[in-house]
Amino acid sequence: MNAPLPTPFFARPAAEVAADLIGCTLTVGEAGGLIVETEAYDGTDPASHSVKGPTRRNASMFGPPAHAYVYRSYGMHWCLNLVCEPASAVLIRAIEPAFGIEAMEHRRGLSTRHLLCAGPGRLTQALGITGADDGRPLAEAGFAVMTAAGPVDVVADRRIGISQAVERPWRFLAAGSRFVSRPPTRDALPWRVPR
DNA sequence: AACCCGATTTACT
DNA sequence: GTAAATCGGGTTA
């Protein structure tokens, strides 16, 4: 059935991995769900933390693939990325909650279902991800991404919250999902359509 | 200063 | 229901 994604899956350009992750299942401890929104960042990318080379914060982006890069955003949220090729990673922006929902609701405080994991900060709060998870390898017990159950209709759009390289269509969404942080814009591109 | 954001309020279709 | 405005708040380089 759903096998864990192997390390070579991640050892590719982040934009490819980001698109292919849509529809896969993220598991953190007892909770998880279907990945419905991602963004790619790489070493040639002015919007990426890695563009100026390694620093203490972004060290994980230069480490092995299939590991977590977790950083603090705006002083109060954590953001979860999965490392791909050197200096690149995929930001996990939203999942459709599938299991461990009570645990996630408890960590988030009462929040409506479609907002439980809709956004990078909400998602890490729901899953209990913090800076302590930076550098953590996938496939460690209770931390995994599983293959998609079936083909998923994916669209590509502009990334959110950046001021550099805004035109790169490196945000990927499950078409029609109600669990994304923001719906696609008018100029979102069809990316991969199941046949 | 700038930042890969979220919760809340206020205002509109 | 979307859209804009506002504030909160740590860390980076």
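qc> The helical segments of chain A are 7-10, 14-21, 101-108, 120-127.
qc> done
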